[in-house]
Amino acid sequence: MIPPRIWLFVFAIIAHNIPEGMAVGVSAGGGMPDADSLAMGIALQDVPEGLVIALVLAGAGMSRVKAFLIGAASGLVEPVFAVLCAWLVSLAEVLLPLGLALAAGAMLLVVTHEVIPESRRNGHEKLASLGLCTGFCLMMVMDTALG
Known about the structure:
This protein is mostly helical. The protein has one domain (about 5-145). Helix content is about 85%, strand content about 0%. The protein contains five helices and no strands. The protein has helices at about 5-30, 35-60, 65-75, 75-120, 125-145. The protein is elongated.
């Protein structure tokens, strides 16, 4: 029987492989030029991690073959999360314009239903209209000049 503290150690190493796989997936999915180097570096450092797991499990009484298989399998979460995150990056690229359009529409709704009517109360109609027109013109100039 392997003590729970050893299993905790094994699961901690496996859990720390998840963000490493995510880093590889995001860099590959995002088209980073050195994504393959990152993947290779992370894969190389997984070898000693798997070896540590195998040695600890074998030292705790598990058969060498079973300890080796668990050690080797400990790195399998990385490619799973790499593929998942590479897919999510490509999905986010497609959904980003829709999200931005939704945010812009929400802002327009709030401005037209809340901010403009509130700014025109208490006798400040001309100043509120002048501020709205000035702000709109300034944003259009900035958008054209910086856009």
